[in-house]
Amino acid sequence: MDSVLQYLVEAAARCPDKVALADGEQAFTYRELLEQSRQVGAFISSREPPGRPIGVLAKHCAATPLLFYGALWAGCFYVPLDPELPSAKLQRLLADCNPSLVLTTDAGDPLPFSGETVCLADALSRGAGRPLPCPEGGPEHPLCLLYTSGSTGTPKGVLKSHGAVKSFVEAFLSTFPLSPDEVLGNQTPFFFDASAKDLYLSMRLGARLEVLDASLFTFPVRLIEHMNRRQVTCISWVPSALALVTQLNTFQEIKPQYLRQVFFVGEVFPMKQLNRWRAALPHVRFTNLYGSTELAGVCCYYEVAGDYSDSDALPIGRALPNCRVFLSDGQEPVRRPGEIGEICVCSPALALGYYGDEEKTAAVFRQEGAQKVLHTGDLAQYREDGLLMFAARRDHQFKHMGRRIEAGEIEAAALALEPILRCCCMYQQERGKIILACQLAPGCQETARDIRAALKQSLADYMVPSKVVLLPEIPLNANGKIDRPALRLSLGI
């Protein structure tokens, strides 16, 4: 069995009565997860041929991965869908992947969907007593189809294989000494790429995955109390979730008692917030991860060491052992420190491509000689010591007053200011203006003029924002990242 199902089968044999998945309301042992997911798989295989997409309305609860595994037992691949999506957008995604079956954790409102919608209880009932064929396919067999909006806001489906996920899991665990005793605190929604890392690492270890309810992040003290009750030892969160804890001075009231390892991924972690985490929890290991939706898991890591000022930037570090990561100027590799190039990745963890879009797949996953190379669209440079430093998204660059500017450099300068909680820099091309949208930390009274004046102390004149806009809240997308298209729309840019 050359698939991620092997992780579940082996864990269920080693520790059948150990809790595999839990949230605040329910829990599944490895035995229950194996038996019930096979039952769901038997139901699916009775009506769907292998290789078909199975939609899963991915509610953030312990039951959702059971549905994922059910699809895999049937030899199909799952498509996790955000249950909070507007009906029109959900309809577009369903039309794109065209499943004939969507699974849900519980019965709810009807979906904008012509196929059949089946809840977990019904799937278990209809699968009871049915035979389950041996799942077809090897490492190249599709595992999941993940939709990401990208920078344009247009959804694109990235298809990943069993072999890609297994390659990442094995490489990650050869790098980081995680054990079966871990309790992984899952923050990222199951329709978000980063959650697969939590799920399959915990299954491979035979550890416990504790699904943290999104409402806990509104009250960080309650969040840490809950983590202490559940004895969470390891977390891999987006930086905005981590920053929320320190922005509200949570550690002055309570600290995580069992936490040993913190990974962060998905966006740049403001250094002043990371410094507060490190100061409060000096015994904890902090690791910056870098990856792309177009590969399974991550490809680079940097274990934070030494002191950094609030205005410093962290490296994304070096490649995992299953990846070859290099920089390219579009013609040849970039090797000189300080020179900017596009991050390119060769690895067995690369995705299969974009679902139903051969042209886009060929443009991003380029065949270069005997190997396939992922061109990420992210820019980076080497430090003198050979570590990679993230520079920007290529589509977040702009030219102003004859100079090429990285929006991320302006954002980093703003985030180093004490009043700034969150910010986003955008360029208004038709007017030639740099716009910086800022959300202030609670209790701060600074004006837009104050922020602009402070930035003049740290930025070159041509980089100082033409306009600073203070907002009560900067919109985030479902993945916890700044929603740039929504922000542009609200500001009329």
TrEMBL record:
Gene3D superfamilies membership: 3.30.300.30, N-terminal domain of ligase-like (3.40.50.12780)
Domain AMP-binding enzyme C-terminal: 409-481
PANTHER family (UniProt xref): FATTY ACID SYNTHASE, NONRIBOSOMAL PEPTIDE SYNTHETASE
Pfam families, alphabetized: AMP-binding (PF00501), AMP-binding_C (PF13193)
Name this polypeptide is given: Amino acid adenylation domain-containing protein
Gene Ontology biological process terms in this record: amino acid activation for nonribosomal peptide biosynthetic process; secondary metabolite biosynthetic process
Database matches in InterPro entries: AMP-bd_C, AMP-bd_C_sf, AMP-binding_CS, AMP-dep_synth/lig_dom, ANL_N_sf
Gene Ontology terms for molecular function: phosphopantetheine binding
Domain named AMP-dependent synthetase/ligase: residues: 10-355
GO cellular component, one term: cytoplasm
